[in-house]
Amino acid sequence: MPRKPGINAGSLEVLCHARKFQNECYLTTRNGGIACSPLGDYGAILLTSGKPRQTPAQARFEIREKIQLLCKTLERKLQMAVVAGVGPIMPQGANLLRSYHER
After folding, report:
1. How far apart are CA 15 and CA 25, in angstroms?
2. In terms of DSSP bridges, do strands 35-39 and 43-47 run parallel, antiparallel, or are they unpaired?
3. What distance in Å separates the CA atoms of residue 51 and residue 42, rounded to the nearest whole number?
4. The pTM is what?
5. Which candidate among 18, 61, 73, 77 keeps its CA 20 to 30 Å from the CA of 27?
6. What is the C-alpha separation between 100 and 90, in angstroms, rounded?
7. Which phi and psi (to 5°) does residue 83 adopt?
8. CB 87 within 8 Å of CB 102
9. Are the C-beta atoms of 14 and 4 separated by less than 8 Å?
């Protein structure tokens, strides 16, 4: 999600800031092996995976690197600070709803 533009930013500015972030996040990830969807009015939720046959620690490290690279790209394109976190690694076929609620 984008960091709030400033302490004196109004609600409309914050919403426009977030919408611009959501749009650019979608455009940046659409061909990169990451699925992106808006997260309410303030950020985006991303879905990606590591390479097959990795340990959970290796997969988490790979995913964290992907997300950090995406954040740096978005920060450069949008000229704004971006905050991201990586949720738990879910085994193949697991229910993703639990992971979504841990954001």
Report:
1. 15
2. antiparallel
3. 30
4. 0.77
5. 61
6. 11
7. -115, 135
8. yes
9. yes
What is the helix, strand, coil percentage profile of the chain, to 5?
45, 10, 45
Q: What is the spatial distance between Cα 86 and Cα 57, in angstroms, rounded to a whole number?
A: 12
68 pLDDT tier (thresholds 50, 70, 90): very high
Indicate the helix (H) or strand (E) that contains 47.
strand 43-47
Cβ-in-10-Å burial (0-12, 13-18, 19+) of 25 comes to buried
**Domain ranges, ordered by start, for the chain:** 11-101
Name which residue leads in pLDDT, 97 or 69.
69
**Burial of residue 87, with CB atoms counted within 10 A of its CB: 0-12 exposed, 13-18 middle, 19 or more buried:** middle
* H or E element that contains 99: helix 97-101
